[in-house]
Structure of Sulfhydryl oxidase:
Amino acid sequence: MNSWCLIILCAVFLIITINGAVVLDRDDVEQQGLYKKSDHVTILTNKNFDKKVYGQKNAYLVQFYNSYCGHCRAFAPKFKSLAADIEHWANVVKLAVIDCSVEENNEICRQFEVMAYPSLRYLHENYVKGNAFVGDKFSSADTADKLKSQLIAKIQSEQTLGRLPLAPRLDIAAYASYAAVLSKVPSDIKYTFLVFENENSTAGSELALDISDYKNVIVRRVHENSELADIAGVTHFPGLVAVKSTLEPTPLTPKNPSSQNLLNAVNTFLKTKNYAFPERNSAVEDTLNNFISEQFAPEHSLIIWMLLVLSFPARKKLKEYLTELRDTLASRNQWSGNEVYENVIRLEVNHDPVYTSNSDYIGCKGSQPQYRGYTCGLWTLFHTLTVNAAQKPGLEGPRVLSAMHGYVKHFFGCTECSVHFQAMADKNRIFQIKENDKAVLWLWIAHNEVNLRLAGDVTEDPKYPKIQYPSVSNCPKCRLSRGAWNLPAVYEYLQRVYGAENIRDLRRARSAAAPQSPFSNLDIGMLSFLYMAG
């Protein structure tokens, strides 16, 4: 028996003696008042306000509101629209809300001298707590675009004071040549995107913030009446030109140079250059984050992470994080819940960013909050593990099934669900699976068995009906002439969809260059699966 198996057996025995779940942040709330976490805002309360707001590297635009206020209700859709639009500005500024109608939050609202609702306050980065510090007031503009313009102007103003060091430069200048621009950009920049506009335009600033997390590219604002505008041949404004580090320009101005179209033009251009776009959380990665932060007791983390590090096709930082977490947990026989929590936080800081964003289960987001999400991502994660384990030497696939069974049996939060799952696993002889390819197909068969049972059920997302997958349109070769399954073709399809080469984080959903998630039609609610199976 190799050392891997010994560690797994040791961890299984620890299940009997160790208790304590790891919860990353007990003060977070999913919903309060007019806002939900999925609205791309930080929900503040009296319990988490200090921790979330003070001493942060990013600024905050905080809305103090009263959920009974009619004006607040009318303003909420605009604030949510802005939050969704600028979610990728999070390294610069985040949007947050606090409901002053909640009695426990009254002290915070009084501290910030809130006299009317909604009240918007801008809190700069590294903000400190104090009686005199109540933030800079914002007007509640009547449209999301006006509020965005107001926020951009504030960021520009803050930069003149030497603040927001993590923000891209938003100042505008006149240049006489491409060389003059590039002489002032860092040496690692491969492409500089020049936005020619007037001083009052926000298009260049918005583009700079939209791609502020892109590596090796940068945006510079250029006066539309500068000499360089004539050299570049820009006649329509705002104009857009990409300049390579070798001073080679490429005109990119779209016919309708709106902010969104400028972003699309940049993304399309970079795609032609095989640019490595910023990694976004996929449904699989969101689920993995949930596993660590909410689901696992310490001893079970040891079991699963052994498999994840071996089988999960993770990004480099996530892989390094999982590996060190595995090694840390393997270094001792017993851990308390607090000790594991401290290690998780420490390693997340050391490997930051581990999870690139809080992206609300991209690829598994349901049409309504009650659909899909974590449970869909959980199923997708299990598929991903079995497929990628099958590509490694040894019998890793059956081990994944065994670990999955152990997780559900000992640690899944719903006892009745766990009982039903174990009955289904026994009926389908999960422990008699001895080959990698059969482990992959075992999950696929269970997937379709449950889809058939739950089609039309109240748990089904009407936008993503449960089908016998893959559909004929997605995989014509997967079915024989009379509708029977062509198992070799199905196996090949699963390898293609869930294999490492196809596990990619989604780019901006609103970008013209963004691909559609390959998992969008694989709608299995794992909770429903566990409850109904058997």
